[in-house]
Amino acid sequence: MTDKETHAGYDCFIGEYRQPLSGGCERTDMDPITHGALAYLLYVGYVMGRVIISKSTQTHHLPATWAFVPLAIGSQFPDLIDKPLAYWGVLVSGRSLAHSAFSLLLIGALLNSVTWIQSRDTVSRLPTRLRASIPTAFVIGYAGHLLGDAAYGLLSGEFFSVRFLVYPVSALSRSSGDELAPWVRVINLYRDPSTVIHVEIVAAALIVFVGLRVWKYSRKRADKLN
Question: How many structural domains compose the chain?
Fold first, then answer.
């Protein structure tokens, strides 16, 4: 497969599209909505793991409401940084600096340090649960974004397509897709949502979300009756 194929007026780039045997382009990247849904599922899985280990649902809610904000931001963070900077010519690619695993580790460490300092501030205005949720939820959302973008390449063995994970160790080339404004790319992306949204992931996230709301409501009713 070459670095670039063209089909129906769209450029097909390694890491964003693949060229199937039948010809044409098939999307392998992940849209913002699916990124958010995947991050939610990963966070719920993390919290459920903690619940199982601690054997207590009193301490760990599924998931903490405060966690939605950093989780949502983290799930979109790499694109919010790389896509505009690539469009403005600051970065070489729309998947580079913030899409690197090194950036994930660095930002995660910085967030943990800031949160630790905040926890020692007795006059901090941040709610205790928010302080506890920020680093973990953000990092899970961030990691989920990288996982979503790299999933096809990793599963198919096309490791060259996920070299952005080790940027700047591995050099990246600029694609013509980065010449398009990020907001225009999103608008174009959702002109036909059925072709870009990973329905199975979004549906799973909705089912889990509704299920947990029902569980929480039932649990509160049971507690009142007791």
Answer: 1
